[in-house]
Specification:
By secondary structure, the protein is of the alpha/beta class. 36% of the residues lie in helices and 16% in strands. The longest helix is centred in the middle third of the chain and has 17 residues.
Length: 166
């Protein structure tokens, strides 16, 4: 039996991103459920925690905007108004992946993915990405501009689209 997911975002997401760390704020250290963010929460977390979390949210917003920009003028607009809210269809999870949950699963960082010792049949796509199509799982670089630059983000977007079509 798996523990309930904990993190930020929608209750029934279609895009589930798993990350090894949490925002270093008291309210997130003991979070044991999925908390939908409200308008201003992302800006508040970034302001209180610094550049690291701002980059994570920015990369996530850029990725989702690349997948489906409908209704938003920019990735910044998407980040500020919909990313990780109850209506977003995404989650940023701090818990162990539950690959039985519907959706596309992305684990950020190869080191974190190895530490999870998942029962997955991972096929290397290139030096940066691994995929298990049957479980709709992608191992991707960490959500940081240096590790997941625009070129790699475009590849990740295509992998997600392929999983959603197949």
């Amino acid at each position: 039996m798996t523990n309930p997911p904990c993190g930020l975002g929608a209750k029934n997401p279609q895009l589930l991103v798993y990350i090894a760390n949490r925002p270093p704020l008291d309210e997130y250290q003991t979070l044991c459920h999925v908390k939908a963010l409200q308008f201003g929460d992302i800006a508040g977390i970034a302001q209180q925690t610094g550049n690291h979390w701002r980059k994570i949210f920015n990369v996530y917003a850029k990725l989702v905007f690349a997948l489906n920009p409908v209704g938003h003028s920019s990735w910044q607009n998407y980040r500020d108004n919909l990313l990780l809210t109850k209506d977003s269809q995404q989650a940023l999870l701090f818990s162990r992946p539950d690959l039985q949950q519907p959706g596309v699963h992305i684990i950020t960082g190869r080191t974190y993915a190895k530490s999870l010792q998942l029962d997955a049949c991972l096929v290397p796509i290139d030096a940066d990405f691994q995929i298990d199509s049957a479980q709709r799982l992608i191992i991707a670089p960490y959500f940081d501009y240096r590790q997941l630059n625009n070129e790699k983000m475009a590849r990740l977007s295509k992998l997600i689209q392929q999983l959603n079509q197949g």
